[in-house]
């Protein structure tokens, strides 16, 4: 089980029972019985086993108590006793840990869909049908980014299979059914409504979840969400809960996203996604005001990959992508999904706002490398004293001191040779800039979309923005990572 900001993915590790608060009563259709009877045979329980060593358990049980805590010595003694149970030179003791989840059949020949987190660390996978038949399963393909996986079981008879519906047509307030294996109680049917659409829960780059109030719990992971026609319109994946039990806030991967991923996993064992080579960030109200966008919209480009599709299409840092292949980018998190779902090598129109004007560019979509992840390039600052540093100039309006980039500063703050601007040498922790996250070592490369080479240039633009009452938009380089920060000044009384 993973834990994300009180969001529990729903697999059940080492079965335990928790009682969830009852849902508030509401009027409902006359009965779900006929629909449930039709759908239950195609929903399966998934049991996995994983080998865990004693050393793994000790590491998993590491707590750091405050210095001087009365529990500190006790816990050290506990660890020592546990380590002494395995004599030096001997193999650590191992045991089998069991995890439970849900899944559903999509092909009568034995293809089954579940969540990636249900099976990712499994040594053995067993699929349990409604009639309690146990079938060993193998992983056909897994996708970490959408948390989906496809399994295959060998069966002598065709299995009842489900079909996908159009999740784009489901509306907030529509009734849905969820079927799964909560806490090992297989074949559990619950009902609710769609509470919201397009939820971003910060679990991955393609978040676009359906939210429901249907009671789903740990063990429901990978189970299907149905519309009233009996079609799968979502894959239950996570819940929001302070305790781990259902409080009526659950999330499912929409079928519109899942279908394409599942088909690729089923046929090739992996996924192919579009890629354009930009780093993006959300457009806040302050950023929108500073760019003259009006209402916040689009995805702000804070970095462009050299010789990538966006670079070849002449996309610039500071552009706001508001449309991609005819689809409006109302929110930043929609762009990655639009790009990922686009056919590789396809040339599409992309509209950007650049210095207040809309420009349409043609961009040829590239291929995202398998399991491509942004590497953490942040390193520890070198606190050792070095050569004398240049004198710093105070930017009163921001409550920071900046200096021109010199070799000693580049070395001390790990600033690349190609980075230009002024570096923050100190920032008042109670000042305006610090309130927006600026810190020593940051390089301000642009202010109000103008290149900064000297502290005077920064001071002049900052003072002008403060006098006008408009936010100032800074482009900041932090250890090679570019990010826009819009700082709003207090209005003069």
What attributes does this structure have?
alpha+beta; disordered N terminus; Pdz3 Domain; 493 residues; seven-stranded antiparallel sheet; 11 helices; Thrombin, subunit H; six-stranded antiparallel beta barrel
What do these coordinates show?
The chain has three domains: 1-13 and 32-47 and 98-271, Thrombin, subunit H (Beta Barrel), CATH 2.40.10.120; 274-367, PDZ domain (Pdz3 Domain), CATH 2.30.42; 393-487, PDZ domain (Pdz3 Domain), CATH 2.30.42.10. Helices cover 18% and strands 34% of the residues. It is built from eleven helices and 30 strands. The strands form five sheets. Strands 24, 25, 26, 27, 28, 29 and 30 form a seven-stranded antiparallel sheet that branches. A hairpin with a 7-residue loop joins strand 10 and strand 11. The longest helix is centred in the N-terminal third of the chain and has 15 residues, at 70-84.
């Amino acid at each position: 089980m993973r834990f994300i900001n009180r969001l529990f993915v729903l697999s059940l590790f080492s079965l335990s029972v928790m009682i969830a608060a009852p849902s508030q009563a509401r009027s409902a259709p006359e009965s779900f019985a006929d629909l449930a009877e039709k759908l239950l045979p195609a929903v399966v329980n998934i049991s996995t086993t994983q080998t865990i060593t004693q050393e793994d358990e000790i590491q998993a049980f590491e707590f750091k108590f405050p210095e001087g805590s009365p529990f500190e010595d006790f816990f050290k003694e506990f660890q020592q006793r546990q380590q002494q149970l395995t004599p030096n030179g001997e193999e650590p003791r191992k045991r089998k840990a069991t995890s439970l989840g849900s899944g559903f059949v999509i092909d009568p020949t034995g293809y089954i869909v579940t969540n990636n987190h249900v099976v990712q660390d499994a040594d053995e996978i067993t699929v349990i049908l409604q009639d309690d038949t146990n079938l060993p399963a193998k992983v056909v393909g897994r996708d970490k980014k959408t948390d989906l996986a496809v399994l295959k079981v060998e069966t002598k008879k065709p299995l009842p299979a489900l079909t996908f519906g159009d999740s784009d047509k489901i509306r907030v307030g529509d009734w849905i059914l969820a079927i799964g294996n909560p806490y090992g109680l297989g074949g559990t049917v619950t009902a609710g409504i769609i509470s919201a659409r397009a939820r971003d829960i910060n679990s991955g780059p393609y978040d676009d979840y359906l939210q429901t109030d249907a009671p789903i719990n740990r063990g429901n992971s990978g189970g299907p969400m149905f519309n009233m026609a009996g079609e799968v319109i979502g894959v239950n994946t996570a819940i929001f809960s302070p305790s781990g039990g259902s409080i009526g806030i659950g999330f499912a991967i929409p079928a519109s996203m899942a279908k394409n991923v599942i088909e690729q996993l089923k046929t090739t064992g992996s996924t192919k996604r579009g890629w354009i080579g930009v780093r993006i960030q959300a457009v806040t109200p302050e950023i929108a005001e500073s760019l003259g966008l009006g209402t916040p919209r689009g995805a702000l480009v804070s970095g462009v990959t050299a010789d990538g599709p966006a670079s070849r299409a002449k996309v610039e840092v500071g552009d706001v992508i508001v449309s991609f292949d005819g689809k409006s980018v109302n929110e930043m998190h929609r762009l990655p999904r639009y790009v990922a779902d686009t056919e590789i090598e396809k040339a599409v129109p992309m509209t950007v706002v650049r210095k207040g004007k809309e420009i349409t560019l043609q961009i040829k979509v590239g291929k995202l490398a398998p399991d491509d992840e942004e590497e953490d390039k942040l390193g520890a600052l070198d606190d050792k004293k070095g050569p004398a540093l240049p004198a710093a100039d105070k930017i009163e309006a921001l409550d920071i001191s900046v200096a021109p980039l010199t070799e000693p500063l580049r070395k001390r703050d790990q600033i690349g040779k190609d980075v230009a601007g002024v570096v923050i040498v100190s920032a008042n922790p109670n000042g305006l800039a610090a309130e927006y996250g600026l810190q020593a070592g940051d390089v301000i490369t642009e202010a109000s979309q103008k290149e900064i080479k000297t502290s005077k240039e920064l001071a002049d633009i900052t003072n002008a923005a403060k006098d006008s009452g408009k936010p100032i938009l800074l482009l900041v380089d932090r250890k090679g990572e570019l990010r826009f920060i819009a700082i709003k000044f207090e209005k003069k009384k």
